[in-house]
What does this fold into?
Amino acid sequence: MEQTMKAVVLSAFDAPMTVTELSRPHAGAGQVLVRVMASGVNPLDLKVAAGKADHAKVSLPAILGIDMAGVVEAVGEGVQGFAPGDEVWGMTGGVGGVQGSLAEYAAVDALLLAHKPASIGMREAAALPLVFITAWEGLVDRARLAAGMKVLVHGGAGGVGHVAVQIARAAGAEVYATGSAQQRATIEGFGAVFIDYQASSVEDYVKRYTDGEGFDIVYDTVGGATLDASFLAARRYHGHVVSCLGWGTHALAPLSFRAATYSGVFTLLPLLSGKGRANHGHIMAQAARLVDEGNIKVLLDERHYALSEANQAHAAMQDRSARGKIVVDVA
It folds into this structure.
């Protein structure tokens, strides 16, 4: 008898998802069959569901859910390092034709996975992969984060931002972060010097905190005008601006006049292209280490949503009522 599973399926853009009974996938060569325990919700999921994320290359019907935490059910041919019963996590699907985590089971490329941190539960684990990978790729892979650097994170209370602050702090950097006055306590709670972006100009905080020289790394998690401001905040000669939302049209002259550099972060690329997936697994292993060392904590919304309530979970993110990452409890 064929084994089945429940999954939440998007059959039409800008329409509710539906719980559907589907055939359970099998672990092919290089894959791990995971019993999904929790699925993280990201802003990209909402854009995909609304049909406003062509770059995610999602064709219908689709199972969304980029982030996942779960338990290994079986391993496919050639897989090493994972065994049935292992708790794992990763950014494993939901784009590019790869099944997402809003399902009871998923056959996942083993390269994308790492062992879940022992010190946190499935919900916390499912909230971290995309934001951690995005923060790490910018700070470590692109900007070569090192102890003693002055790091500015724009949007320090946001999903990527609050993780970027903690990664930089764990590396021994001196960290500053922008936000609104209401976000001050959150930003300071993660160990960054708070900068009220509404009350301070770029020139003001560059002068105050860097004697006018600029920051070694500026991570823009906001995009638009904030990326333009980032170019003005980079340190002369050695400054590096990173953005995970650098999708607009921007004048590079302010950056060039400081002889600084820029890097873009496109976290989906390994899932879309198939290239670089092992690096995502490596990053998740680093994330597990930092979490278990007590250096990374995730802002998690307290509300619980069952798999059958995935639409409500999306609505809670859409209406901006979330106080941290939203997670769907799959099992």
The mean pLDDT is 97. The two ends are 23 Å apart (CA to CA). The longest helix spans residues 277-292. The CA atoms of residues 204 and 327 lie 39 Å apart.
